[in-house]
Amino acid sequence: MATDSRAKAYMGTVGEFIHFVGERKSYWLAPVIFALLLVAALGFFLEGSVLAPAIYSIF
After folding, report:
1. pLDDT at position 21
2. Ordered alpha helix ranges (H), the chain
């Protein structure tokens, strides 16, 4: 599978999820998703860092 088709499939999934949240009025999911993305980004960027063991011990 080519990278561009994989990106289009991912954006289709994200678009469907946003449509689902808007249709079902599930706006309470937004802070949960934001927190999960924040933790994932923190783990990704601090992976090789000296702070990584301290972050991993929190979770």
Report:
1. 81
2. 3-24, 29-45, 52-58
Q: Are 59 and 52 in contact (CB under 8 A)?
A: no
Tokens of 37: 């993305």
Q: Would you say 21 and 27 are in contact if contact means Cβ atoms under 8 Å apart?
A: yes
The owner of tokens 């998703």 is 33
Is a pLDDT exceeding 70 seen at residue 3? Answer: no
Residue with tokens 């601090």: 46
What are the tens digits of pLDDT across the range 14-46?
788 888 888 888 778 888 888 888 888 877 777
Are residues 29 and 19 in contact, defined by beta-carbon separation less than 8 angstroms?
no
C-beta contacts of 18-25 below 8 A and 24+ residues apart: none
User: φ and ψ at 26, to 5 degrees?
Assistant: -95, 60
